[in-house]
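Lecture 7 notes: from sequence to structure.
We start with the chain below.
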Amino acid sequence: MGGLSRVGGLGGIAALVVLLATVPLVFVIDSSLGLDGAAWARLWSTRLPELLWNTLALAVLVAVGCLVLGVSAAWLVARRRFPGRALARWLMVLPLTIPTYVFAHIYTTLFDYEGWIGRYWQADLYNIGGATFVLSLAGFSYVFLLVQGALESSQRSLEDAARIQGAGPWQTFYRVNLPLLRPAIAAALAVVVLHVLSDFGAVSMLQYQTFTLSIYLQMSGRFDYQGAAGLSLVLVFLALTFLSLERFFRSRQRYYSSAQSRHAEARQAGRGELLLIWGWLGLITLFAFLLPLAWMLSWSWEAWRRDLLDERFWGYVGNSIQVAFIAATLAVAVGLPLALFHARRRSRLAPLFLQLSSVGFVLPGPVIALGILGFVLAWAEPLYGTLAALVLALVVRFLPLAVQSQDAALQQLTPSLEQAGRVLGCGPLENLWRVIVPVIRGGMAGAWVLVFIDALKELPATLILRPTGFDTLPVRIWIEASEEMLELAAPASLMLVVGTLPALWLMMRRS
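Predicted structure tokens for the same chain:
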């Protein structure tokens, strides 16, 4: 309390935001403490070994798949000049617009015996191979973005020195470029693995048992909230362990270069290389974006032709927009005091608060929903089964996006502007409204768009906490995919892709 008294009212507000962000984790820990030794032994003998193996094996395989696709594509785009290079860069990130559960639904349909691919080659995706295939296509773009940025900012002098010493292209890549790319690769794989650990949509549609699917089944099928809390605690421990290891190894891999060094330049691709480049990038684009897009357009046209897009469908669209709008607005409003505290207060609490507010990055959707459900039943029972409980879960889930985007904007705000406002007689709130907000409104808008789009696509928390009869686009995709209603699942999937494009454009413009 003494620390909070020294940082003033802003610190107190930031502490309340942090308390809100950590509510799910606190209640999951509290619920899991209710499990006695016999219950933990039963979980270990019946569920935990299989779930640990399935989840970790899937994370490793998807990391390898994303590494192969992302690094190879990044190398070709960053180090070769060829016709359509700017288009290729966009094609490599467009898969981020497609949620994993949409990928899973589309490819189980395409590989079915009546599907476009299944007519010629049938494949069973209801196993670890299918889950790896789907999640690799959905996640390799993270590796591409970070590795491409690292390649374009790398220094030419080290590669020149390697070639002077007689190293060939492959030796230069393996012994010079790859070690320099390790921090970027580590950061990208951290994002990929965390997405795998928290994924619910794809593994549920492919019926592949991981922690997230088992947590959901424990809650919705068996109503065993303590068992679900125990599984959630193990999953959180896995995520935190992985993050700690990733940061430890990345902290030991720092590379410095002279500011006067020249950046590596892209070399003009020859005819043979051009065929290889577009052959490989085209193959990735075909499976990661074009086939899913063609499927969505085809079945959406079928739904439109049969007049199936009725008032109920547009009601689902309206529900999704309503929830995402409220969650994004609240997340930006709640995250601003914490971002201000971190950017403007020199206190040991500031970085601690920022880390604690990022719980939403570590906790999967089912775990956050479980924590919010426990909080509501214990302290706010009137909110049970209402829209407020769902919005609260979404705000906690995506608060890190709102805080970090606004914090980045505040770091670029010159403190003298705020001081000038105070000198002219503005109080704290007036200075915030008339000086700070107008300057950082671009960062706030970016934060709002990012939270809006992610809230629009959120599936597990919405499934668990939505009011009775309140369906959103992700929920309808999940329900209609399980009932093989392709002509209804496709338009909902297409709406999510179209809605995600503004966030992708914003991210690409910033990069």
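Points to note: DSSP finds 23 helices and two strands in the chain. The CA atoms of residues 376 and 384 lie 6 Å apart.
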